Amino acid sequence: MGKLIYAANTSLDGYLEDESGAFDFSVPDEEVHAFWNEHERGIGTSLYGRRMYETMRVWEDDDWLTDQPAVVREYAGIWRDADKVVYSTTLDAVSTARTRIERAFDPEAVRRLKEESTADLSVGGAILGAEAFRHGLVDEIVLLLCPVVVGGGKPALPRGVRADLELLDHRRFTNGAVYVHHAVRSAT
């Protein structure tokens, strides 16, 4: 059975994006990129909302990768090797391999997907992540706290959901970012 892991880069004050929608504060250096590569190797299926999918689909294209460091090119391969489910009512078609569209988030279907999976699953994006939290589907949280305070924007964690957590791991990076990994003991 796979675990559903909510993973995100966030500002220290808890935002995925600042008030203008920018997330440039979370662009990883090579050390952080290598960390995310290792994390993503264990993911068999990624669940995305439309906006997160549109951000991530850049990894399908090789053209921009030729001048990138090896760690960045490696991530593209890891991303391509995972299955992807995009939840969208507006997206007509997908432009990446191993990807399917679901028109509605069905908690029971996600539970079955977890039960049938031999690898972990990830959920990305604030809106879809919040739905997974609200339905008690998130098993673990992996956050990379970036050394910046942005003062507002899109919250990384859902409002109105309580989750009791157990710290599984943590690490400090040279660039000042801090990784925290928690198991969700209970959520209400």
Q: So what's the overall shape? A: globular
Mean of all residue-level pLDDT scores: 95
Order of helices and strands: EEHEHHEEHEHEEEE
Estimate the helix proportion, in percent. Answer: 25-40%
- The helix tally amounts to 5
**CATH 4th-level superfamily:** Dihydrofolate Reductase, subunit A
Strand-residue proportion: 25-35%
Distance from N terminus to C terminus (CA atoms, Å) equals: 22 Å
Radius of gyration: 16 Å
Strand order in space, largest sheet: 5-4-3-6-1-7-10-9
CATH topology: Dihydrofolate Reductase, subunit A
Q: How does CATH name the architecture?
A: 3-Layer(aba) Sandwich
Residue stretches low in confidence (pLDDT < 50, at least 5 long) are none
CATH classification class: Alpha Beta
Q: How many separate domains make up the residues?
A: 1
Largest sheet: 8 strands, mixed
InterPro entries: DHFR-like_dom_sf, RibDG_C, Riboflavin_Biosynth_HTPR
Protein name: Dihydrofolate reductase family protein
Domain Bacterial bifunctional deaminase-reductase C-terminal: 3-178
Pfam families: RibD_C (PF01872)
